[in-house]
Write a structure and sequence with these properties.
Blueprint lengths: L6 H31 L1 H6 L7 H25 L4 H13 L11 H50 L3 H11 L9 H11 L6 H11 L5
Helix pairs in contact: 1-4, 1-5, 3-4, 3-5, 6-8
C-alpha cells in the first residue's frame, strides 16, 4: 500500500491496531465456548489469572519495538512520522504492508530481523489480550450459572426443594454427596431459567400448588 496523503499513514496505523483488537475480541468469544467445556481440565494444569498489570508488562516490549521501527524509518530511511509509524506497526502485524523504499543491504537486514522478532512479539501480545477477554467471559459465565441455580432454588417452596433434592440423593442418605450435587447443578443450569420454568417446578413438586 502506498499512501497518497499525509493523513493516510496515520489512519491506516489506527485502522490496523483497532482491527486487530476487534478481531481478538471476536475470536476470544468463539474460543470462550470451547474453553468452557474444558474448564476443569484447564484448571488442573494451573491456569494463571491474567490481570491488567501482566497485560501491560507484556505489551511494553511491543511498544518499545514499535518505537525502534519508527526511529529506523525517521533516521535511516528519512520518512515522515506517519510513514515511519505505519512501517513499525504493519511490519509486525501484516509482515510488510508498508514496504521499504530503499534497497541497501542494511535496510533489508534490519527489516528481516525486525519482522522475524516483531511478528511473534505482536502475536504474543494479541494472544495475551485474547486470554484477558476470555478470562472475563468465563468469570461472567460462572456467575450466570450460579445465578440460574440459585434462582430455581429461591422460587421453590420448602416441600418442592425436599422433593427436588431427594431425586438426586441416590443412596437416600439424607445428605447430597459431591457427585450428587454436581448432577443437581448440572440439571439446574442445563438451559436458561425463566419465570415460567420456576413456576413449572413449583407446580410439579409442591403438592399444595403454592
Amino acid at each position: 500500500m502506498t499512501p497518497r496523503s499525509a493523513a493516510a499513514p496515520f489512519f491506516t496505523s489506527v485502522f490496523v491496531v483497532a482491527g486487530a483488537a476487534l478481531l481478538a475480541n471476536f475470536l476470544s468469544t468463539v474460543i470462550a465456548d470451547v474453553i468452557e467445556n474444558a474448564t476443569a481440565k484447564f484448571q488442573e494444569v494451573g491456569k494463571k489469572e491474567v490481570d491488567l498489570g501482566a497485560l501491560g508488562a507484556t505489551a511494553a516490549p511491543l511498544l518499545s519495538w514499535w518505537l525502534l521501527g519508527v526511529a529506523f524509518g525517521r533516521l535511516h530511511e528519512g520518512w515522515d512520522w506517519g510513514t515511519a509509524l505505519l512501517f513499525a506497526v504493519s511490519a509486525t502485524s501484516s509482515i510488510g504492508l508498508q514496504a521499504l523504499r530503499s534497497n541497501d543491504d542494511a535496510s533489508l537486514l534490519f527489516c528481516t530481523l525486525y519482522c522475524a522478532i516483531g511478528v511473534p512479539l505482536y502475536t504474543l501480545v494479541l494472544g495475551r489480550f485474547s486470554l484477558f477477554i476470555v478470562e472475563r467471559a468465563l468469570q461472567q459465565r460462572q456467575r450466570q450459572i450460579r445465578e440460574r441455580a440459585a434462582k430455581v432454588v429461591r422460587d421453590c417452596s420448602d416441600e418442592a426443594l425436599q422433593d427436588m433434592f431427594s431425586m438426586y440423593d441416590v443412596n437416600q442418605s439424607g445428605d447430597l454427596q459431591e457427585q450428587e450435587i454436581f448432577m443437581l447443578l448440572q440439571q439446574l443450569v442445563r438451559s436458561p431459567v425463566t419465570e415460567g420454568d420456576a413456576e413449572f417446578m413449583v407446580r410439579e413438586f409442591d403438592t399444595a400448588g403454592k
